[in-house]
Amino acid sequence: MEWSNYSMYADFVLLGLFSNTRFPWLLFALIVLVFVISVASNTMMIILIHLDSRLHTPMYFLLSQLSIMDILYISTIVPKMLVDQMVDQRAISFAGCTAQHFLYLTLAGAEFFLLGLMSYDRYVAICNPLRYPVLMNRKVCLLIVVAAWLGGSIDGFLLTPVTMQFPFCASREINHFFCEVPALLKLSCMDTSAYETAMYVCCIMMLLIPFSVISASYTRILITVYRMNEAEGRKKAVATCSSHMVVVSLFYGAAMYTYVLPHSYHTPEQDKAVSAFYTILTPLLNPLIYSLRNKDVTGALQKVLGRCSSSGR
């Protein structure tokens, strides 16, 4: 019983992202820069969407929710990692690891579902433009957001208690920079193969449902775009959808590598590199991809900067 209590509540040690790096402080400075730019750019997206009336549309409402998720997502992992590097300590309590695990799963799951449901918005906008205000009214937009958050929360509430109830009788050192499921399960002295199989099926379903919506939506979109007579309309439709497809490919591709590809095909160091990509870089890339290729967003930014410069004078 004493051993069980120890294995349940003792602190973990995160080996981190900097342990096997030749220039840890250079990597530290780069991650700080990425974190600041990511939070600032996503915050700017939310402010622009709120201030500019031209951006008060369903698509931009969903993009603002994506920015909120990205800010929370990167803030769940990166600040802890940076503080640990600064004070030269790697410990994380059992409660802290559980909370980080739950928030990570919830936010990642919510983003999966939101990206999938956003393809329905693009489908309606291109294939049924005349009915767009009816099919994507405020109630539908709220339902999409609630469904995304609910789906992510279910994922967190289902997987977190099961993962954290395993006795961790091996080393307390997690070969990762945050409490991710595969890295945690390697510390368990129990056979976790049945749980890993169930989690594999769960991840397949979480990827398959949104991916099915995306595939069906974009199949119809491609057919509609192919039938368009106007080159300008075709170009605008492709530009609008390509940003979403780039974000989906980056996020889903990295997740499939981590959770769907068998563990024998990747090493812990590769896992950390891929996890760093979709937990640190993706929240940075999302606002950049959507803003740089979008005239409405760049126009709104120029308008706000113009107001600020004129008021400064």
From TrEMBL:
Mind telling me which Gene3D superfamilies this protein's record contains? Rhodopsin 7-helix transmembrane proteins (1.20.1070.10)
A UniProt-annotated Pfam family:
7tm_4
Its primary localisation, in coarse terms, equals: membrane
Q: Where is the G-protein coupled receptors family 1 profile domain?
A: 41-290
Q: Which CDD domains match?
A: 7tmA_OR2T-like
What Gene Ontology cellular component terms go with this record? plasma membrane
GO molecular function list: G protein-coupled receptor activity; olfactory receptor activity
Q: Which InterPro entries match?
A: GPCR_Rhodpsn (IPR000276), GPCR_Rhodpsn_7TM (IPR017452), Olfact_rcpt (IPR000725)
What is its subcellular localisation?
Cell membrane
Report the coiled-coil segments: none
What PROSITE patterns does the annotation carry? G_PROTEIN_RECEP_F1_1, G_PROTEIN_RECEP_F1_2
Highest taxon, organism lineage? Eukaryota
Alphabetical UniProt keywords: Cell membrane, G-protein coupled receptor, Membrane, Olfaction, Receptor, Sensory transduction, Transducer, Transmembrane, Transmembrane helix
What function does this protein fulfil? Putative odorant or sperm cell receptor.
Query: What family does the Swiss-Prot or TrEMBL record give for this protein?
Result: Belongs to the G-protein coupled receptor 1 family.
Q: What is this protein called?
A: Olfactory receptor
Q: Which organism is it from?
A: Bos mutus grunniens
Tell me the gene name.
OR2T27
